[in-house]
Amino acid sequence: GVNRNITVYTPPNYNAGQQYPVLYLLHGIGGDEWEWQRHVGAKFNDIVDNLHNQGLVEPMIIVMPDGNALRNINSEPFASFGAFEGVLLNDIIPFVEQEYAVAPGRENRALAGLSMGGGQALTFGLRNTDTFAWVAGFSSAPNLDESPNNIDQMRNLNLILVSCGDADGLFSRSNNIHNHLDRNSVPHLWKVYPGGGHDMYVWNRSFYSFARLIFK
């Protein structure tokens, strides 16, 4: 019952007569729908524009929502970020697909995020494999489900990317889910950034890598 904002990036020469895949890109615990543009060191606009202009990515829409589903209602962050799953699936995706020129189906949906948003993206994406085909978590926070058990469904995803800097205090979270996926023979890409902390040095590079791989 509360209005929330989303920031939407459309690719160069966006044409409502075409259909585009969509990347849903989530922020961290202290952020909102502008974090990917306004966080210290954020290079989102430069990265995505250059990737499109150089033809290195499929033309895509990128949706950056406010992932704090209970903002101003319930200040407990883990409950608020957990409740966002329903908002994403039941409200945001249908809204975006109604208002923008979106290609339908799981093959045309990707989900990724940083920190708390990384925990959301992996947790929600890995258990909603009928909705998303491409999933990534960058420096995922403790809200991450480190041992999802729907092994067969996860094996059907087109891409799972897990990334973290090895100097990040949350490194063990990403390493744990990497090891869990590895033990269960779930194909995934594990990227460790030497010396990387919990910062945009890692997140810019992770976004760049993921964007180049999806929808192909």
Cα end-to-end separation: 37 Å
Q: Quote the average pLDDT.
A: 95
- Helix count equals 7
Class from helix and strand fractions: alpha/beta
Q: How would you explain this protein's 3D organization?
A:
Strands 1-3-2-4-5-6-7 form a 7-stranded mixed β-sheet, with helices on both faces. Helix content is 38%, strand content 17%. It has 216 residues and is α/β, with parallel strands linked by helices. Helix 3 packs across helix 4 (116-127). It contains 7 helices and 7 strands. Strand 4 (109-114), helix 4 and strand 5 (134-138) form a beta-alpha-beta unit.
Which terms summarize this structure?
single chain, 7 strands, 216 residues
Q: What would you say about this model in short?
A:
The chain has 216 residues and is α/β, with parallel strands linked by helices. Helices cover 38% and strands 17% of the residues. Helix 2 runs parallel beside helix 7 and helix 3 packs across helix 4 (116-127).
